[in-house]
Each structure stands twice: as structure tokens, then as C-alpha cells.
């Protein structure tokens, strides 16, 4: 992996790397609580409605997920929570079945995984992130409104498509030269800063973190994230952002929410292409983890869609979601990490809401309000 370009900005990027590194001792202290090897968790909502038929049911579509499963645990019957994209994906993070309208744009009242982890482990904002594929709705995954939890324990939100687009690249040119920002550039810069760390107590509210985050933005703008194209561009950006966050900040928890597979409503072929490309992007993420000595033996990756899709094609040769079929209601979850069993396939029925309490248990945290159970037969 070569995330950083070697050009005239090398000095700047190098300086940021030094600033971003946290003392190993500080990490080690936090890590011991659970008695597990896992120090970092990446939880991917491979959302947008993805059937098992097009993932594990179609050899060659998802080589990354297949490789993860071979070295981890595969749950073949994961019951999704409900049929709306927003509520179903939220349920993965709260461990509670969330009935939500598909266009609803509001925070829930239930705490999220991010809040449990930050509160119980006393983590800083820079230790818990969520990287989304786009849309204001997805910022609601970062925290809920429960009085015991809420914004002060929320995840930093980075919206890859909103933030790392070509428009912002021009700012970089200015930053690279000692000259004042034009008014337009200053406005872009303000928007860029505003797009991340928007939670109270978020990374940008702290001077030290503020400098780190700004350097991080530079990393993204120089490492090609803004130039990602293709049918899954927004999803791929979300994955790339998470990869770079992971490598730079070594956070405790990174959530990723994808969504573009929902193109399936209009095109089955387009949907399959997005699944394949997203698997490829997850492959980059996985390789980055394996190539990093600080992450390699201490990072857990969990991937699951929020629900599947209908059993049969619609009149546009696409796939909707609403027929109540097994294809729709059951998805496959892939769990890989140093504490988990290898090459184990679990056929028992489990639920998407089991993921939140299972991740919490792994990290030694209590998912106090979650209603899911611990995933069975997960550990080695
Ligand atoms: Zn849809």
C-alpha cells in the first residue's frame, strides 16, 4: 500500500505522520480491559440491500469476504431487523430493532455502539469514527439521544463523498503555498472542516486534534481519494477514508456504512458490479491492516449487509426489497479477527442486532440497552 504521494508535500505529510502517532504505552493501557487480543474493530455495514446469492452464493464476486471467512467465522443466517435501509443499518449499531422510515432523518433515542465504547473505555473522540458513503441521514448513526450517552460520546463522522471530492482538491494547492486563502477557498475550507467532527467534543473541538485532523484531510486529498470514480465511488471513498483513518489514528472503533448497492432497484448488473468493486475496496482495507505491524494481530473486521433483496427480478430487471423472502430477510455476516475461530461456518439463526453486544463484549464494554444476544460460536 502506498497511501501517501511522494512529492513536494512530502515534508508536510511526513510531519503529520509524526504528529498522528500516539504513544504505544497509552494504547496498551486501554487495550487490556477485555483480556482479548482485539484492540481495534472495523464494523462494515455493507448496506444498500445485498443478497447472499450475489456474495457468497456467486463464487468470484467477493474474494475478499471469502478470504476473511476462511480465516474467520461465517454466519449464514443473520436475520435483519426491518425493511427500511436507514432503520436496518441503524439496528446494527444500536443492537435494537429500529423501526424507521426510509427517508426519516433524525437521531434515535437508543445509544449506539460508538457511545458504549467511548463511554465505558473513556476514549477520546479521535478513537471512534464512522465513515459514511453519503447523505445527511447517515450522520445519525454517530450517536443517539439517550440521556446517559449521546453527543459527548459520539463517533466522529466523515462523509467521504461530501468531503473528499475534486472541489476540495484545489484548496490543497493553496495550502502548499504561503499565500492567503481567497474568499472562495476560505469558504471551502470552512465547509471542509465543518463536514467532520461535528459532534460536541468532536475531534475538531480540541486544538491538538484539530491539527491532526487537518493533516489527515491533506492525506486524503493527496492520496487519490478525491479522484475515485466508478459505480461505487461514494462507497469506495468511505472505505478508503476508513482505511486511512485506521492506519493514521489507530482508533479503537471504525464504523463504515455503504449504500450504493441499492442501485439494484434499477439494474441487477449495476448492483453486482458495485458489490464486486466494494469487495475490492475492502480488500485494500484488509491489506492495509495486514501490512501494519500495529494493526495486523490486533484488529477485528466484521462485515454484514443491513438486509438482502427480493427473490425475483422486478420489471426493470432490477431487485427491490419487500417480498418477505429468505433472500431479503437473511443476510450473511463475516467476522474475522485474532480472537475468533478460523474457517467456521455457523448455520444457526442469529440476528443483526447481535452484532452490537458482541462487539461490546469483545472490547470489554457493556451494551447496556442493546437487545441482541452475543453471537454464538464466535471465539476460537
Ligand atoms: Zn432500496
What would the keywords be for this entry?
13% strand; alpha/beta; 380 residues; Alkaline Phosphatase, subunit A; binds zinc ion; 13 helices; eight-stranded mixed beta sheet
Topology:
Layout lengths: L9 H11 L3 H8 L8 E6 L17 H8 L2 E7 L5 H10 L18 H9 L6 E5 L23 E4 H4 L2 H10 L7 H12 L12 H16 L10 H17 L3 E5 L10 H23 L8 E6 L21 H4 E7 L7 E8 L3 H8 L18
Parallel strand pairs: 1-5, 1-6, 2-8, 3-4, 3-5
Antiparallel strand pairs: 2-7, 6-7
This protein binds zinc ion (ZN).
The site of zinc ion has 5 residues, from loops.
SSE order in H/E notation? HHEHEHHEEHHHHHEHEHEEH
Can you summarize the main beta sheet?
Answer: 8 strands, mixed
Q: Specify the structural class.
A: alpha/beta
What's the number of helices?
13
Return the CATH architecture of one domain.
3-Layer(aba) Sandwich
Structural shape = globular
The proportion of residues forming helix, as a percent range, comes to: 25-40%
Bound molecules: zinc ion
CATH class of one domain: Alpha Beta
CATH topology name of one domain, in short, is Alkaline Phosphatase, subunit A
Average pLDDT across residues? 82
Can you walk me through this structure?
- 37% of the residues lie in helices and 13% in strands.
- It is α/β, with parallel strands linked by helices and 380 residues long.
- The chain has a domain at 41-158 and 232-311 and 327-347: Alkaline Phosphatase, subunit A (3-Layer(aba) Sandwich).
- Strands 4-3-5-1-6-7-2-8 form an eight-stranded mixed β-sheet, with helices on both faces.
- Helix 1 (10-20) packs across helix 9 (207-222), helix 7 (166-175) crosses helix 8 and helix 10 runs parallel beside helix 11 (268-290).
- The longest helix has 23 residues, at 268-290.
- Mean pLDDT is 82; it is low at 1-32, 171-179 and 197-207.
- Bound molecules: zinc ion.
- The site of zinc ion has 5 residues, from loops.
- Residues 49, 85, 262, 265, 321 line the site of zinc ion (ZN).
